[in-house]
Amino acid sequence: MSILNSKVPQGPLSEKWTKHKNDIDLVNPANKRNIDVIVVGTGLAGGSAAATLAELGYNVKTFCYQDSPRRAHSIAAQGGINAAKNYQGDGDSTYRLFYDTIKGGDYRSREANVYRLAEVSANIIDQCVAQGVPFAREYGGLLDNRSFGGVLVSRTFYAKGQTGQQLLLGAYSAMNRQINRGKIKPYNRHEMLDLVIVDGKARGIIARDMVTGELERHSAHAVVIASGGYGNVFYLSTNAMGSNVTASWKIHKRGAYFANPCYTQIHPTCIPVSGDHQSKLTLMSESLRNDGRIWVPKKKEDAIAIQQGKLKPVDLAEEDRDYYLERRYPSFGNLVPRDVASRAAKERCDAGFGVNKTGEAVFLDFASAIMRYGREAAAVDHIENPSEEKIRELGEKVIEAKYGNLFQMYEKIVDENPYKTPMMIYPAVHYTMGGVWVDYNLETTIPGCFCAGEANFSDHGANRLGASALMQGLADGYFVLPYTIGDYLADDIRTGPIPVNTPEFDEAENNIRLQLEKLIKNKGTRSVDYFHKRLGKIMWNNVGMSRNEQGLKEAISSIRELRDEFWRDVLVPGDANEVNPELEKAMRVADFLELGELFAVDALHRKESCGGHFREEYQTEEGEAMRDDENFMYVAAWEYTGDPGKAILHKENLEYDNIEVKTRSYK
Fold first, then answer.
1. Which DSSP category does 443 fall into?
2. Are 202 and 192 in contact (CB under 8 A)?
3. Which of 623, 647, 649, 624 is nearest to 636 (CA)?
4. pLDDT: is 141 or 640 the higher one?
5. I need a labelling partner for 242 at 20 to 30 A (CA). Which of 199, 297, 391, 601 fits?
6. Is the dihedral of CA 199, 204, 206, 212 positive or negative?
7. 113-171 pLDDT tens trace
8. What are the residue boundaries of the Fumarate reductase/succinate dehydrogenase flavoprotein-like C-terminal domain, all occurrences included (predicted)?
9. Is residue 327 flagged as an active site residue?
């Protein structure tokens, strides 16, 4: 075990980033045109990084497995993006955004990175407005804000419920400009399958053309991984079905440490599971918790009657409803952080108060908001003594203007009108706070290999606050990586093009070819999805919303057995030299089967509860997370040894010089 060097600059927190930018080496504009950079992943982090690096003059190659960068999973983000611009005049500031993020992550994130994130957040909004992102605006013309969980201010900028899509289109337009200039060469429908290291430095990748099946060698002076998170290790999650850990896991197996894999976010506001036929879950934006009130029946007999369809939720009297978040957390109410809201929902459902057929759902009710907005609208329109029907009609129009596409999506999936009856929601796997370990420069433990966005671990600690994912992705891509990668590339101005006809590229390509051939020739009896579903059930049951020592040990043993069975009995039809989705999935599930074990190992070693990592043995009398700051205030970064169960632990100790570390309270 070693103590990792995060390379955080010296000096006052508020001056670190400015001083660092002034101190790092730069690359002459004339030299940038001789330097190549590979960017894997074209979501918000990868797309913004590629566009900015190309704008600076570097030659950029981008890789995505989708048919277009517009298909990146960033498009699915709904509710908004945080920034400390204080348009509301409600007391927000760079420091408050920094503090809320550290507290929301349960004091398990790196102080300097989080402050930098808060510091550059305002620049992101200006950048996106200049690109034409249609943020919502107030009557006076200023950009509008709404609230998200874990904060007491309104700092979330949004474009209805389509914020991720609009931001991604902004980054994509910036990419297209550089593609047109010839500075970005896009490789769509290509998947990175290995990293090539030459003389200890990342110098390229092996990618598979997913149309022809051909393996390709691509060289560069630096490689950026921006391939998103690994929530699909649970099979059922809010992630797109193609989302995977392969790029991150391949560089992990080449020497990049993997940090805090057990820090995975369970989002409280998702459409509940309806049956074993499902392949993914649907997120309902956290922004809905601005106006929706979460409740279950106070009486168990009422809950049973609702489950059986004998009682409708709208018929239950107000005094018979338990608005449990408002009851338990009066200060934050329905806007507590995601980990807190998720565990509270699970507790109510486990106690028998769930409201759907499976007993695993709670209500998200907009009736109060509809009537409140309706009365306001009636007053604005000078309607005297409006009827209840008129108030409801006016209120529904206000809600439709704010959340219309989300309500429409819910109705299409569930076939119930959420304007008339409460939505049903339940927690589901969403975002991953863990990921590839990076230093302050976003460089991994492999020189020349950088990692940005959700793929790295750096900013969210043990729990991500809502609307911070888009913020981190764009901060890394637009405003951090373009500076820090230059400091590394300044030593490469005389290197010249990196050749691909070398033993290192030979070895990497042969390594992947053997894996593909082994899967194609396996001739087993079980589909890839069969193994993925089984892995997902092990993960959800033993490493899900709550964990304990016995369950984690069982998970480690079960995953090892499942991995052995996978390589013995998986059936991959077709050939490697053609379009073959099953082969693609098989490679990704093979990586998930290794990650899943490390995930459980990490959760077992961390004998505390913090944020999204909840060990049942370590909780307060009120059921809240109980941290152990004396023994576990560090980042757990794991080194690959050939066996996920025998990974070597390296620690990055976390120090907080600018805030007081204390038990989180949202009451």
1. B
2. no
3. 649
4. 640
5. 601
6. negative
7. 999 999 999 999 999 999 999 999 998 889 999 999 899 999 999 998 899 999 999 99
8. 532-666
9. no
Angle 96-97-100 from CA coordinates, rounded to 5°: 80
Q: Which domains does the chain have, with CATH numbers?
A: 13-263+433-491 (3.50.50.60), 268-428 (3.90.700.10), 507-636 (1.20.58.100)
pLDDT (mean) for 608-629: 95
Q: What is the pLDDT of residues 408-423, one digit of tens each?
A: 999 999 999 999 999 9
Q: How far apart are CA 297 and CA 556, in angstroms?
A: 38
Q: Which neighbouring-strand residues pair with 264?
A: 432
Local structure of residue 41 (DSSP, 8 states): -
CB-based contacts of 571: which residues, under 8 Å, 6+ apart? 522, 523, 524, 525, 526, 527
Angle between helices 111-131 and 94-104 (to 10 degrees): 120
Rounded to 5 degrees, φ, ψ at 665 are -140, 130
N residues, the chain: 667
DSSP string, 83-140: ----TT-SS--HHHHHHHHHHHTTS-S-HHHHHHHHHHHHHHHHHHHHHT----B-TT
Residue 412 half-sphere exposure toward CB, CA atoms < 13 A: 8
464 vs 105: CA distance, rounded Å: 6
CA distance 393 to 439: 53
Q: Is the pTM for the entire model greater than 0.90?
A: yes
CA angle 103, 94, 98 (to 5 degrees): 20
Residue 605 corresponds to which amino acid? H
